[in-house]
Amino acid sequence: MEYEEILRHLGDFGPFQRRTALLLVLGTIQNGMHVAVMTFIGAIPNHHCLVAETGFSAFNTTWPEALNLTIPMEEVDGTWRLSSCRRYSSGAISMNFSTTGCPEDWQQGNSTAVDCNREWGQVNRSTTSCTEGWEYDRSQYHSSVVMQHDLVCERAWLRELAQSIFMAGVATGGFVSGVLSDR
Predict the structure, then answer these.
(1) What is the mean pLDDT of residues 142-155?
(2) For 104, what's the count of Cα atoms within 13 Å in the CB-facing half-sphere?
(3) What local confidence, expressed as pLDDT, does residue 4 receive?
(4) Alpha carbon separation from 109 to 41, 51, 89, 115, 146 (Å, rounded)
(5) Which residue(s) pair with 75 in the sheet?
(6) What is the arithmetic mean of pLDDT over 91-100?
(7) Which residues cross the membrane (predicted)?
(8) Higher model confidence: residue 69 or residue 179?
(9) Where does the chain show beta strands of DSSP type E?
(10) What is the pLDDT of residue 65?
């Protein structure tokens, strides 16, 4: 028997085939959404180590200055930006600040004078990982799984692990369902 004879015997693409194809497409759309969902709920926004502002209020620093003093710069794709996973150790920050020429009350944090010499020593400051958490840029994403569970830096592999486990479940389910449907 040839292929064309088999098609004539089975018939054309009729109402039953249309309904079956439509039901298969409806189920496939949901599966596609589940596969692509990690792109959105697992988005990794710009982030840096959480910086406690209280230690710098005594030195009259602004928030950007506090970030520059606590987080090292790193080169990423040819541009310099604040490090996402490292910060200067707190001991190196407090020891390197110099208030030469400043009034005594300013050095104690009781004055708002900014006309004295504030200098940070440029000694070899050691860095450490983020121990107090991260601060995320929420301009594009209000919330994501990455932000809720801090899946960045040393824990970034957990995001990929979740996607791999999901895909392993899809493969296992496809195999088991295929075998069961044949029976």
Answers:
(1) 88
(2) 0
(3) 82
(4) 43, 19, 22, 14, 37
(5) 80
(6) 49
(7) 21-44
(8) 179
(9) 47-49, 73-76, 79-82, 86-88, 97-98, 119-120, 127-129, 134-136
(10) 75
Q: Which of 87-96, 102-111, 143-152 has the lowest mean pLDDT?
A: 102-111
Structure tokens at 93: 């920050």
Q: CA 88 to CA 126: how far, in whole Å?
A: 6
Q: For residue 101, what are the CA distances in angstroms to 20, 96, 107, 165?
A: 84, 16, 10, 61
Question: Which pLDDT score is estimated for 95?
Answer: 43
* Lookup: tokens for 8: 């004539």
Which pair of tokens denotes residue 47? 């982030």
Ramachandran sector of residue 20 (left: φ over 0; alpha: ψ -120 to 50; beta: rest): alpha
Closest CA to 91 of 57, 121, 46: 121
Can you give the pLDDT at residue 19? 92
| Both tokens assigned to 40 | 């959105």
* pTM for the structure as a whole: 0.58
Strand, coil or helix: 158 = helix
CA dihedral defined by 39, 85, 55, 136, rounded to 10 degrees? -10
